[in-house]
Prior knowledge:
Strand content: 15-25%
Oligomer: single chain
Number of helices: 23
Mean pLDDT: 78
Distance between the termini: 31 Å
Low-confidence stretches: 1-74, 461-467
Strand order of the largest sheet: 2-1-5-4-3
Structural class: alpha/beta
Shape: elongated
Amino acid sequence: MEDDKWQMYRKESRPNKALCPLPSAIAWTTPLQFAIMVQMSSVPQTNHCQQCQWGCPPLSVDAATAAAARDAQAPLPPVTCSILDSVIAAIFTVDLDWRITSFNQEAERITGVKRHEAIGQHWADVVRQADADSDCALRQSLRTGKPMVDRHSSLTTADGKRIPIRLSTGVLYDNQGKIAGCIESFRDLSMVEELQKQLESQFTYEDIIGRSGPMRKLFEMLPVLSDSDSTVLIEGASGTGKELVARAIHNLSPRSKKKFIAINCGALPDTLLESELFGYKKGAFTDAKQDKPGRFAVAEGGTIFLDEIGDISPAMQTRLLRVLQERVYEPLGSVTPIKTDVRIIAATNKNLHSLVQKGTFRDDLFYRIDVIRVDLPSLQDRREDIPLLIEHFIHRFNRLQDKSVVGLSDEAWAILLEHEYPGNVRELENIIEHAFVLCRGGQIEMRHLPGWLRGVDHQQQALTKPNSMTLEQMERIMIADALRRHDGNRQLAAKQLGIHPSTLFRKLRSLDIDVPEQDGRSRK
Length: 524
């Protein structure tokens, strides 16, 4: 009977936008839109839309009328409740006082708040959205009159659990065409977040993040390097993660129970560097009132990491050469050699081979440390790792700063994916940390990025310069982004990309893109 009533209403009484309160982001085509309209109109009113037999009252009324309407709280027609409760997404609507006028069953399930407890309350007290106190999507819709689609945020449930959500908002109109309230729909992304963590774990090795070809080769090499005691030379630009690789080698090695000692050789003058590395004896110089062990002594049995070894002077190179050749050293003020049992890992942001040819770096020292060489790619050479690194830094800063940032806007993604990153991974990390300072929750927007990055000149340069990514890298990023947007659903991802699902499947195999076993179409 209810279905017949709906069909009769839709056929004979189809309202127009000027008369009925419709979400601006949703066309009037299904029972769901009618249900939303009825729920916003469920309080007793005297004014009715001329074409609507169930009544479509104006919502932009004076405060006294609005308060009386909220107090009345007329029950929804059964068909309306059934339609709203059958929707997968959580849905609630608010009036111009930000008080909830409707709350479906999925909203009850996700928030843990019963419908009768939610109706009439301020939405932020019920939904407890992370960005509720800032310029959230609901407020943006009311301010601009435009829908906000596919935004990310999080909410805190009634029992204190944080839930990541994806939401869309729109405005509702009264029968005079004025904005009368807003509507928000959201979905629980807890399962998606868990799948992302599982996927990320496949591309994480001892805190090193990457899924590009060079990084996969590095992951394969690390266990082999760790089993050996040979000296390792790590070459790579500043900010590529040389110390992370050195720590990974140590942590995977039989020496992992001993200390890992790092020292930046380029930051200290020769005299201070020598005393730091080898220590000194009491009376070795004026202020040497007692013996002090050096870094080699502290790292005994473990690993010592000599960062920026290409910056040390020729005199210091000679002293290090003896340690590498004979495995002995002499503290300042001592004439007794001390044997050392440490593994040496050296790193530099320079090309040591070219320094040898120029005569600024000893060739015999170079050949002593260049037993096993690891070349770290710049972020420019592994651009397909950028989305994975961004997600990693977001999770990390959420833990450190106790925030609930859940992603980036499309505009922010576009800028970060196109930036060249002369400072490599360290620069990307600093950009995300800067955004976290300004972003209180929800999505990182363009306004949260550093000013120099979102400047007009930078954006125009990003749009006009030749694309520095290869076609394969671009395909990887676009496919991964489409899968992320659709919770791993390959059918929807293929539709967004404009290709057949079988074509997407072939590209997943040819590009060696790993996806969760669950494709996002099932739900608990």
